[in-house]
Specification:
It contains nine helices and no strands. The protein has 182 residues and is mainly alpha-helical. The termini are far apart. Pfam families: Retrotran_gag_2.
Length: 182
């Protein structure tokens, strides 16, 4: 085998980028490039071959039901940020699609809207009134939520800084209205 030919070991040692919860777009471009270079992109677009499931239709049905139930029960955690929650949703949706079960983007967006914590309720209402939710992609919706989250976190940090600054000034030599030192 000559040095100019691509050997099986070269394909095997190709580093597969792992999705770690942020930078989804960049990761997806890397994955598409990798799959196209290995002539596997058609499987991603069309799904796995149907022959894989003919002998195990009962197992596939149970898996579909289990994954669909997990999808329906999925809720955002109180301490979870938007990006992490959407990553969990996308991972589950990919597992559902991976076994041949179709799920439309509008259903995923709708699920995320219904399962966010209460602090996003006013954002969801605003988005529903301003945009056509039927045509809204998960990326667009997630971006709007992340922008809100960033603004909210920035505002909360400013309030914290102001409170910290005010407390620091009140412990100086000026007049202090509150508890005394003794």
């Amino acid at each position: 085998m000559g040095s100019s030919s691509i050997g099986i070991t070269e394909v095997m040692t190709t580093s597969v980028p792992m999705f770690k919860g942020d930078g989804y777009y960049r990761w997806s471009v890397k994955m598409e490039t990798l799959f196209r270079s290995q002539k596997l992109w058609k499987i991603v677009e069309e799904g796995p071959l149907e022959e894989e499931y003919h002998g195990s239709s009962k197992i596939v049905t149970v898996r579909r039901q289990t994954l669909r139930q997990q999808f329906e029960l999925l809720q955002m955690k109180e301490d979870e940020d938007v990006q992490h929650y959407v990553s969990r949703v996308v991972a589950l949706v990919n597992r559902i699609k991976g076994i041949g079960f179709e799920i439309e983007d509008k259903d995923v967006v709708s699920k995320v809207m219904r399962s966010l914590t209460q602090k996003y309720e006013h954002v969801v209402t605003s988005i529903e009134e301003a945009r056509d939710v039927e045509k809204l992609s998960l990326n667009e919706f997630s971006g709007s939520l992340q922008a809100h989250e960033a603004r909210f976190n920035g505002y909360a940090n400013k309030l914290y800084d102001k409170a910290f600054f005010a407390k620091g000034e009140s412990s100086g030599g000026g007049t202090c209205y509150g508890r005394g030192d003794g």
